[in-house]
């Protein structure tokens, strides 16, 4: 397995673990968009449908199951379990996700690759690629509206954005080495990365500011 891809997986895994750790330690879902988590749950459930058809090794199987279960668990906590349900900011998490889901369904039907397994699996995989590229939008809108850039939420989003950037590098390296690439993944990854640009700016600004504060206190 490519070390670049493994780095991307580590960042993705870290993002989920940071978010779960934040929620469990603080016993709060403040600043987290349930709408985004629901979209990611749809992404993983549709993309990893191949778990029922192919065995791709322990690593891939464990990672796929973890992403599905952990994301569904976060959704469960925020929707049904106290105190996370009570601390979820539903008044401000108002992004209408159907305006993301429906266009992605249409795009998947119109623009998809030649089926590797069957047309249904290919359409679901393609849909998941398109949807993942915009699934973070409700979270970004919530942060921009509330301006709650707390440290752990910021670290979660940074790892999530960095994972996609690293995966894009992996795909481009694969194209250089093997001469083949799935352009749907690259274009979707590029769109997703661009959505993080403003957040990355805020993240770096915060890190620099905190470093300066620690430096001033240490004087």
From TrEMBL:
GO biological process annotation, one example: protein retention in ER lumen
Keyword Transmembrane helix in annotation: yes
Stretches that traverse the bilayer: 53-76, 97-113, 155-177, 183-204
Sorted UniProt keywords: Endoplasmic reticulum, ER-Golgi transport, Membrane, Protein transport, Receptor, Transmembrane, Transmembrane helix, Transport
Family assignment from sequence similarity: Belongs to the ERD2 family.
Protein name (database record): ER lumen protein-retaining receptor
Primary localization class, coarse: endoplasmic reticulum
Keyword field contains Transmembrane: yes
Entries under InterPro entries matching the protein: ER_ret_rcpt
Subcellular location: Endoplasmic reticulum membrane
Membrane topology label: Multi-pass membrane protein
Alphabetized GO MF terms: ER retention sequence binding
Gene Ontology cellular component terms for the protein in this record: endoplasmic reticulum membrane
